[in-house]
Write a structure and sequence with these properties.
Radius of gyration: 19 Å
CATH topology of the largest domain: Peroxisomal Thiolase, Chain A, domain 1
Number of strands: 13
CATH architecture of the largest domain: 3-Layer(aba) Sandwich
CATH superfamily of the largest domain: Thiolase/Chalcone synthase
Bound molecules: oxa(dethia)-CoA
Strand order of the largest sheet: 1-7-6-4-5
Helix content: 25-40%
């Protein structure tokens, strides 16, 4: 008998209307379209308005996913939001989203695992569904990175964008669904990608703001090396756990942090470029939202066929890394 599986029964996505191009950035910091495109693959990114918070982005994506699944908010057993940019330290963005959706008394919490948060969320949801705790889970990856971006730091401000992707997860009744997973973390390297200020280690103060500690800090070239290594490892291990080979893969849906990391991961699996999904040129790095947005786009474009084998693969702050093998 086939293993029980959880399945995506609805998807949604949202990116803000405003677009910031590389040409716009050339006027803001000492950079060039040529550098950004060749070093990262990014051409433009979507930027939230001053009034929007992460839960607003999440709500747009969540409403679409609920509609797609034919569900009402009150049908949910859990709202799970993966984010590194919550509206507030507390209450959680998931509770704010619950209020937006008027999902009265549906339990809700946030999950913090950097850019890997959406895959961590799928693994947590699988456990809760098979443990009998929940039947229908709304999982949202939502990120509003441009409000924690130092717009004077050219090494980071060209990289990020805002967006949200949402899925409904339920137990599968056929042979489609999540086949295997692999998740890891290494807290010893956390300082390489961090928002240092505003928490309990360095509470917000005039000094912390002056030192720009309320912005994202990243040692990009260090993170790059680990991302390439760990995303390759995660994909290979998750495939092994599913009893599948690289040649079985129809789509690699990698976290979109850098086109060179994406290409290296595709090459590790020996995949031709057409099997590697790329949208980084349009969105930049939208962190935890990148994979659910990609799934939604592929589905809406009619590119996913029943039975297709997908490898979802991510690396992020923590460090955390994970991969999920999924049969569509
Ligand atoms: O989302 C989860 C985790 N995040 C990632 O996986 C991101 C991983 N890291 C990266 O994607 C890349 O490391 C970056 C895109 C951030 C940087 O690319 P890089 O090839 O690693 O560049 P670098 O940091 O080694 O810098 C190379 C040069 C430096 O100049 P010098 O010292 O060689 O003269 C930088 O100052 O590029 C310079 N530079 C820039 N030049 C023009 C850095 N940022 C810029 C810029 N425009 N925006």
């Amino acid at each position: 008998m086939e293993k029980r599986k959880i399945k995506i029964t609805g998807t949604g996505h949202y990116v803000p209307d405003k677009i910031l191009t590389n040409q716009d950035l050339e006027k803001m910091v000492d950079t060039s379209d040529e550098w950004i495109v060749t070093r990262t693959g990014i051409k433009e990114r979507h930027i939230a308005s001053a009034e929007q918070a992460t839960s607003d982005l999440a709500a747009e994506a969540a409403r679409q996913a609920l509609q797609d699944a034919g569900l009402k908010a009150e049908d949910l057993d859990l709202i799970l939001v993966a984010t590194s940019t919550p509206d507030t330290i507390f209450p959680s963005t998931a509770c704010r989203l619950q209020h937006h959706l008027q999902a009265d008394h549906v339990p809700a919490f946030d999950l913090s695992a950097g850019c890997t948060g959406f895959l961590y969320g799928m693994i947590v949801a699988e456990g809760l569904i098979f443990g009998g705790t929940a039947r229908r889970i709304l999982l949202v990856g939502a990120e509003l990175l441009t409000k924690i971006t130092n717009w004077e730091d050219r090494s980071t401000c060209v990289l990020f964008g805002d967006g949200a992707g949402a899925v409904i997860l339920e137990e599968s009744k056929d042979d489609s669904g999540m086949l295997s997973s692999y998740w890891k973390a290494d807290g010893s390297l956390g300082e390489l990608l961090i928002l240092p200020g505003g928490g309990t280690k360095i509470p917000a103060s005039h000094d912390s703001v002056e030192k720009r500690l309320h912005f994202l800090h990243m040692k990009g070239n260090e993170v790059f090396k680990y991302a390439v290594k760990r995303m390759g490892e995660a994909a290979v291990e998750a495939l092994k756990r599913a009893g599948l080979k690289e040649t079985d893969v129809d789509f690699l849906i990698p976290h979109q942090a850098n086109i060179r990391i994406i290409d290296a991961t595709g090459q590790r699996l020996k995949l031709p470029p057409e099997k590697v999904y790329v949208n980084i040129h349009r969105y930049g790095n939208i962190s935890v939202a990148s994979i659910p947005v990609a799934i939604h786009e592929l589905k809406e474009a009619g590119k996913l066929k029943k039975g297709d084998i997908l490898v979802l693969d991510a690396f992020g702050a923590g460090f955390t890394w994970a991969a999920v093998v999924y049969r569509w």
